[in-house]
Amino acid sequence: MWIGACTSSTGGWMQIMAQGMLVLSLTDNSAFLLGLDAFLGGIPIFLFSLVGGVVADRIDRRKVLLASQYVQMGCALLLTLLISLGVVRVWEVLACSFVTGLAQAFGGPAYQALIPTLVEKEDMPNAIALQSIQFNVARVIGPALGGLAMTHLGQVWCFGLNGLSFLAPVIALILVKPKFLPQKSSDSILTSIKEGIGFVRKQGAMEALMVLAFCMTLLGIPMMTFLPFYARKVIVGGLPPATVLTLFFTAFGVGSIAGSLTLAWLGNMPRKGRAALVMLACLGGAISAFALSQSVWFSCLALFFGGVSLIAVFALVNSLVQLITTNEMRGRVMSVYNVAFRGGMPLGNLLAGRLVELYTAPLVLAVNGVLLVGVALYFLMVHRRVAAL
Which of 4, 15, 171, 318 has the highest count of CB atoms within 10 angstroms of its CB? Predict the structure, then answer.
């Protein structure tokens, strides 16, 4: 599963890098449409993850994930064909982003519910940290390969190789043998959703963890979305935009790997809640530093620390949610987490895209960073349930 997910994520990051550049080239550098593309890729997760969680608790999670992989593969290969024929239009890119997001709305809860069933409970924090490592290894390798492909082969290869990369998780899912299989239920989907939300509300700090996940992506992810915009329009360093963008993605990915390795080494560490809040404050500081930078190399340094902080917050919050949850409820609880975690992305990207056109990218991202620091301080000093975990 680790190898399959890493291969697919590598292809995904190749496409993310190329797709940002494609949208900008098709729309005369429209920051709004760049944000809209990210919004359409994320909003289905916000809208349909709760249903996806119910499905993950009723159907073999491998089958749900296989269906998700096939749909995402189809979208990548369709864009490959349209680009190679020279007939691609921006609405087709936006439509494929929405369909891919819809597939992820069902695949995400199933994947997050499947991974803990492959390890013992005491190893779960390490497993989640290792999953973060594979995602961020891909974050480094994918943009690097994407930059080479765009420079020497053309952007169509980024989309085509992403489509082929889905074969790796498909093979892994056929081979894997989970320890827990969901049981069928006669309850309605709405009733099952209510059970999942009720479980979250009864767990004390769980609601606060969901709020933290939402704030982290609402205010933190726009920095990643607007890296192509910074590479083309903001940073002046004498380097080609594709090179600058590759450096940005690589710096962030290396930082994320460093954060993941540190967490995997620490294992089942105490006071995870306090550590998550401290790292959230560090993430806000890194975002503000990047937003105000005019140097490529200082921007890379800020992105490195941003990667360390973001993955630390993600892995710590995810571990806390998983440790509180039972296998029978895992799909639904992780779907609620997905709504919070992934729901912040499209809303943050769409809002940031509009505000960047009204003001400037440095101002909008700097304010996002300051707000993240404020959220961390609030949960550290006022609402202390998370800090006590």
Answer: 15
Dist CA 104 CA 127 (whole Å):
21
| Whether the Cβ atoms of residue 309 and residue 283 lie closer than 8 Å to each other | yes
Q: What is the largest CA-CA distance in the chain?
A: 63
Cβ–Cβ < 8 Å for 210, 340: yes
Model pLDDT, residue 237? 61
Closest CA to 96 of 193, 18, 4: 18
Give the C-alpha separation, 304 to 256, whole Å.
7
**pLDDT tens sequence across 151-182:** 788 888 889 999 999 999 999 998 888 776 77
**Cα separation, 303 vs 227, whole angstroms:** 10
Neighbours of 5 (CB within 10 A): 19
| Domains, the chain, ordered by start | 2-174+204-381 (1.20.1250.20)
User: For 351, phi and psi rounded to 5 degrees?
Assistant: -65, -45
Please say if the pLDDT value at position 295 is more than 80.
yes
Instruction: Give the model's confidence band at 81: pLDDT under 50 very low, under 70 low, under 90 confident, else very high.
Output: very high
Query: 0.85 exceeded by the pTM?
Result: no
Smallest CA-to-CA distance from 307 within 262, 267, 265, 259 is with 259
Q: What is the reported pLDDT for 287?
A: 94
CA pair distance 200, 194, nearest whole angstrom: 10
